[in-house]
Amino acid sequence: MASFAVVGGGLAGISVAHRLHHAGHHVVVFEKSRGQGGRLSTRRLADWQVDHGTQYFTARSAEFQAEVNRWQSLGWVQLWSVEPWMLHRETFTPSPDNQQRFVGVPTMNAMVHGLSEGLEFYSECRIDRLEKQQQKWRLWDGHGEHYGLFDAVILTAPLAQSLALLPAGAKAEASLRQATMTPTWAFGLALAEPSGIKADALFANDGIVTWACRDSCKPGRPSHYESWIVHFSPKWTANHLDASEDLLHQQVVHLLERLAGKPIRIHEYFKHRWLHARSSKQGNVIPLWDVDNGVGLAGDWTVGSRLEDAWLSAQTLAEQLLSDFAQ
Ligand code: NAI
């Protein structure tokens, strides 16, 4: 039996931990936030909720499709039969397609919760430093506590955080330095009265917003309030990293009122800034397993920027680890 430390409790971290744990290894997951799921995140307010991170996911590979079928049969995810609209050159038009889109139920991280069953999990534990001792890894948190020793460390936090922990001279260092992740402002709101907006989801390319959707129309969501989430484009967000709530509010009201064709009344709203929302990786291959250093990497950003990429990277890394640490 080998021992593994996994830094990050998002889908990639929990998926790789799940595989290693069920193969009989000792695995500990360290997560800086309170809960699991990373960007698979749902904000729960007093009487409404909204997914403010990952909005939905698709399954393209046969391998991931099979896993999503399994998640569906366990009741962790459901198909979201949404018909998208588009905002293009100031015009809103239906933009139907045949793409299957899935959501976690009742919150986006439901499958991460399911997969984490039985795992040793430290929440609110931010790993600051890795230290090598006799060919093994000791992990240090921000309060000076240490954990380990582990045979290998698996870094699954977003790119910048993983790079900060990566040992100097690690195999992936150069390719990680070439990759970047871009930010996204999210603005969530509940309406005081129904908007009458026909579109449930909107892809936009007006340079300001990329996505808006009626979150309350997703399966398994509470329906007391009509709730919406709007994502601002990476470029606009980067240019307005310190945007005030008023500025975001103004943009969102402008968009929704154009969609509704009438004034809207908001019950409650919030803003959330995702500093590391999506990868803008440009084709450089990131090696996932560095046997010499005993460091693994997994995350959407190692492959692309979709949820499936996070899961696939975790499977690829797990295969390599299970083969190198075969009992
Ligand atoms: P997908 O196939 O539904 O969408 C991929 C992209 O294609 C969309 O972003 C959109 O620009 C376009 N598109 C798809 N269907 C369309 C339609 N019917 N009409 C007009 N445009 C359409 O989903 P996939 O490939 O699984 O990607 C997941 C989504 O999550 C993507 O939209 C991706 O950009 C987005 N994402 C957003 C992040 C954020 O921070 N806002 C972070 C990571 C991913």
Features:
Polyamine Oxidase, Chain A, domain 2, 8 helices, binds 1,4-dihydronicotinamide adenine dinucleotide, FAD/NAD(P)-binding domain, 2 domains, six-stranded mixed β-sheet, 25% helix, alpha/beta, 327 residues
Structural topology:
Layout (H helix, E strand, L loop, with lengths): L2 E5 L3 H12 L3 E5 L11 E3 L4 E3 L10 H12 L3 E3 L5 E4 L2 E4 L7 E3 L5 H6 L4 E3 L4 E7 L2 E6 L4 E5 L1 E4 L3 H7 L7 H6 L2 E11 L9 E4 L4 E6 L11 E7 L1 H6 L5 H16 L5 E14 L9 E2 L4 E3 L9 H18 L3
Parallel strand pairs: 1-2, 1-13, 2-9, 6-15, 13-20
Antiparallel strand pairs: 3-4, 5-8, 6-7, 10-11, 11-12, 14-17, 14-18, 15-16, 16-17, 19-20
Helix pairs in contact: 1-8
The chain binds 1,4-dihydronicotinamide adenine dinucleotide.
What does this structure look like?
- The protein is of the alpha/beta class and 327 residues long.
- It contains eight helices and 20 strands.
- Strands 7-6-15-16-17-14-18 form a seven-stranded mixed sheet. It has a six-stranded mixed sheet with strand order 9-2-1-13-20-19.
- The longest helix has 18 residues, at 307-324.
- The radius of gyration is 21 Å and the shape is elongated.
- Residues 57-58, 84, 86, 95, 97, 99, 101, 184, 203, 210-211, 231, 274, 277-278, 305-306 line the site of 1,4-dihydronicotinamide adenine dinucleotide.
